[in-house]
Design brief:
Two copies of one chain form a homodimer. By secondary structure, chain A is of the alpha/beta class. Chain A is built from twelve helices and 17 strands. In chain A, a hairpin with a 5-residue loop joins strand 13 and strand 14. In chain A, helix 1 runs antiparallel to helix 7, helix 3 packs parallel to helix 4 and helix 8 packs across helix 10. The two termini of chain A are 44 Å apart. Chains A and B meet through helix 1, helix 2, helix 3, helix 4 and helix 7 of A and helix 1, helix 2, helix 3, helix 4 and helix 7 of B.
Chain lengths: 461, 461
């Protein structure tokens, strides 16, 4: 089995495993107690904090251990917003943040706060200038991920941090995807991360709050972890998290070069061996191990199952692989194709042969899924009498059917003619324009229809 | 080393260790993913939930895994209060709940809610009738621990649950101290627990919300754990928690009898071998492994250090062992002596010889601490001219000095005479009346003094 979903959860690093085992014996007692076992636990906790702080590039007393990266984000965003309540009730996030940041923003909006979601370029990166323009006199907090979790694009954190610093606004950086590779550059104010993304155990997040940042923890708390993470410390996991962060960092520089070469190979080869594919994300400023592409006329869930059957574990931002049946908010914000979306995220140590085997297998798998999907007939393609226009009724059909039907009929209207796709699938809003861009056809726009939405496409060539 | 602080954190049960190791290999992937590793993780999670639910006595879909018992309480109390906001903004807790419950209550008060803290008897138990009287038409939630964490007293949960049920008020039971021993009886509505209290790993709490209980999670959340515990599941620890709960339960009945005999021995022997000791908590309705006593004229922190030196790890509710320099809220609510307080909580499997060695060592240790403390002279004991009254100025002196000074001078006033102890130590408020009760002297009351407080004691015998 080739596990290519490290961006969801990296397999446990051997050092993490070793440290976890050792601290199961030495670190189960309450570190706030005065007796020997408690003091030993406290020493382990202090040493883990020092090690993690060194890797982050902060003071040990600025770093607390949370039960997950998600909790670190919730606490960090909530605490920073509350700490600067007097300044204002405005929050800035990028449109492609992790759901933990976006959920925090939604809670803030529900409580009466205002949120600006800074759009991204087609690469997935924010424009530092556009981000800076969102800063206001009442901005309490700005958030920007170090790198995107779905497409691997690295964000211009240092430039945005500089703009925030100039405006006197703290910047929270969600560094979940990049901290295992390197320190986050720039003059950020808060930072969050998640151990299981770098090969540490689950159950550990990092929350760093720089000295001088106003911060007021929300909700019930206690005296543990500077009052920022209540509850008994998950010490063996914390020790394993810190030890593995140090270990992966020692290997990071060399491994980054190797993985970057492998993902570059995927980026280059996939469009050569699979027709109708869009590789998404920035080609240069990107994480070493992540590459994402979308395949036209492919159902993401079926594709994942077929790849799983071939021994590859990958992830997808397609609508049919999400519980909400909407495409990933990242792909939407980028305006790229979402159907048949595949994220390959290679764990450290991935053998080159596994990547080559993936490239061997992928064309056949995609072709097989497309063949199956080709089978359902176009539900209705009625040539109207007076105008060179075709109506495709895809109501009730899920992605990628609307796009498949569009593709089938585009040739039946003359150049300059119009195809009107009726769809009530949320993915169509993203995928029909993306198809037009890939195919060189003109996307005219959408209109409300009696049922669902009509997407208008003009044949150009 | 004899570890006698299981009520803080129990050593890891061998089954927990074994399950943790196994699921480090099988359970590191994201259980929400569709590929093989994800499905395997999902199966482990589902099985752990079934096992934990069976041990609790609830449906699997009523139980969620939180990152700690503390977080389970915070989420449970906050969610239940928000879910019944329309009913009212009144919360009932006992005065001796765990700090996680009391912190939640403080947050609720800060947000405008009203909290009734039901007092306890000298044994530490609430009176079910008094608890029932606190129920109001606007009561949103009632909380009662299954057993007290500091003195081991078992609470009348079933009777209180019945009263709550009759009033239509949900009862949240913090079962952290008892769930490893048995199911919580009675018709409760919500339940919380913590794995590291029963020999499971740290990083896992349980939150059970019965079907039909109105519940609205507060703050940012996500789709994991029914929206009640955001963040990547700490799966290896969850699997270990469930497996160890099942394992400790299998051994519980027999081990409870054995530990109960050992703690009964401590309860009986300590007052025989150590003078001026008060054993606190209910003699009968109590946890099998917990026994708590307080030693007059003893500094709790020194006592803990000396016991640690002799190889015993115990805990204390004395003021000088807490960061706030106030005695434990539990001992205060019970109105018992707090100075020289020692909680012995035996982990399952504690050898009888360890308990006997503790009983051998304790008298000498206490005597040694007392001898040291006797050394400092009474700061000032000025016999006034006209009245048979002595003023002891203990301002700036910490527990147990004020009580030691009182004890030294009580003989220097005639029967009917008055000792006035000036103290600014919070523990004196609890310990001077407790000393009077132990010594058969009359506690007259307290008066505000120029500095600190004057505690008045009349010599009776």
């Amino acid at each position: 089995m080739s596990y290519f979903d490290a961006a969801s959860a990296a397999p446990l690093h051997p050092v993490a495993r070793q440290a976890l085992l050792a601290s199961l014996d030495d670190g189960w007692a309450d570190p706030s107690r005065l007796y020997r076992e408690g003091r030993r636990a406290r020493m382990l906790l202090d040493a883990a904090r020092e090690a993690a702080a060194e890797a982050v590039g902060c003071r040990a007393d600025e770093l607390t251990f949370a039960p997950s990266g998600t909790r670190a984000v919730h606490t960090g965003v909530g605490g920073a917003l509350a700490g600067r309540r007097r300044t204002g009730r405005h929050l800035i996030v990028s449109a492609v943040e992790h759901s933990s940041v976006l959920h925090s923003a939604e809670v803030f909006e529900a409580e009466g706060g205002t949120v600006t979601r800074v759009p991204v370029r087609r690469t997935g990166a924010v424009d530092p200038g556009a981000y800076a323009e969102a800063l206001r006199s009442d901005t309490a907090l700005a958030c920007l991920q170090s790198a995107n979790h779905e497409v691997g694009t690295v964000q211009p954190v240092a430039a945005v941090a500089e703009a925030c610093r100039a405006a006197g606004v703290p910047l929270l950086v969600d560094a979940a995807q990049s901290l295992g590779w390197e320190r986050v550059e720039g003059d950020w104010s808060l930072l969050t991360a998640s151990a299981h993304k770098w090969g540490g155990p689950s159950g550990v997040g990092l929350l760093v709050v720089r000295k001088g940042v106003r911060f007021a923890v929300q909700g019930a708390s206690d005296e543990r972890e500077s009052g920022r993470a209540p509850g008994f410390e998950n010490l063996p996991a914390i020790v394993a998290a810190a030890a593995s962060l140090r270990a992966v960092r020692a290997e990071a520089e060399q491994e980054a070069v190797r993985l970057r070469e492998l993902t570059a190979r995927i980026r280059a080869r996939v469009p050569q061996v699979v027709p109708d594919v869009e590789v998404v994300g920035d080609a240069d400023r990107r994480l070493p191990g992540v590459v994402t592409f979308s395949c036209l006329y492919v159902d993401g869930e079926t594709l994942l199952h077929e790849l799983d059957r071939e021994g590859f574990a990958v992830s997808s931002g397609s609508s049919c692989t999400s519980s909400t049946l909407t495409p990933s908010h990242v792909l939407r914000a980028m305006g790229v194709l979402s159907e048949g979306n595949v994220r390959v995220s290679l764990p450290a140590g991935t053998p080159e042969e596994d990547v080559d085997r993936f490239l061997d297998v992928l064309p056949g798998v995609v072709a097989g899924v497309r063949e199956k999907l080709d089978a359902p007939p176009v539900t209705s393609a009625v040539r109207t009498a007076d105008t060179p226009e075709v109506v495709v009724d895809s109501l009730g059909r899920r992605c990628p059917i609307p796009v498949i039907e569009l593709a089938k009929v585009i040739g039946s209207v003359p150049v300059g003619g119009l195809v009107r796709v009726l769809s009530d699938d949320e993915a169509a809003r993203l995928d029909i324009p993306a198809w037009c861009e890939m195919r060189g056809q003109e996307y005219v726009g959408e209109e409300a229809a009696e049922q669902g939405t009509a997407y208008l496409v003009r044949r150009v060539g």
